[in-house]
Specification:
By secondary structure, the protein is mostly helical. It has two domains: 1-50, no CATH class; 53-199, no CATH class. Helix content is 75%, strand content 4%. It has helices at 2-7, 11-37, 39-44, 53-74, 105-122, 126-157, 160-164, 166-199; strands at residues 83-85, 88-90, 95-97. A three-stranded antiparallel sheet has the order 1-2-3, with helices on one face. β1 (83-85) and β2 form a beta hairpin. The chain is globular, with a radius of gyration of 21 Å.
Length: 200
Amino acid sequence: MLILGEYGAELFISRVSLIIVLAGLTLCFGGAQVLRELRFSLLVLLLAIPIPAIIYNQITFPLQILASKAASALLPLFNVPVLREGNVIELPMMRLEVAEACSGIRSLISLFTLAIFYGYFLDKSVVRRTILAISSIPIAIGANAIRIVGTGLCVQYWDPDKAMGFFHEFSGWVVFLVSLVCLFAVQKLLTLFSRKRVTA
């Protein structure tokens, strides 16, 4: 696979082959029992491999459209008139483009990875782990839409230069922290719901 990845100029295959080699070495020197014990560590390494470009591009643009649609639906609630054309939102003060970097794909991948770790170490139920991991996707998408809405509000009611400068960068960190809090809340609700079902 490493050779195929090198000749095919596809680094994803080459990187996956490394994990397969590590699994093979673990099986060879440690046996099946050690491999079972380390399966999470080996599988989670897949999350450290960048998504292939062909898949990345197929995911990014729909996320851009989804984020721009959500922002265009929410901004009029704050008396901000908008006109959306694809991933471009026309505001009275300026044009706001939901670029590839603003699609939310990076925060989605980061939040999904954190949800995997969080569920594995703090929850024993496979069902709750799965729900937690899946819930990170709508949380990340919704948080990104809120970030775009916040940028639009700053453009309209504050200063376009500051909105696209300091606020745009700082809001990314704030929104991601809010996403983490939402993820924590989902896990607590799942645990509480499970306890109620057991005691009922």
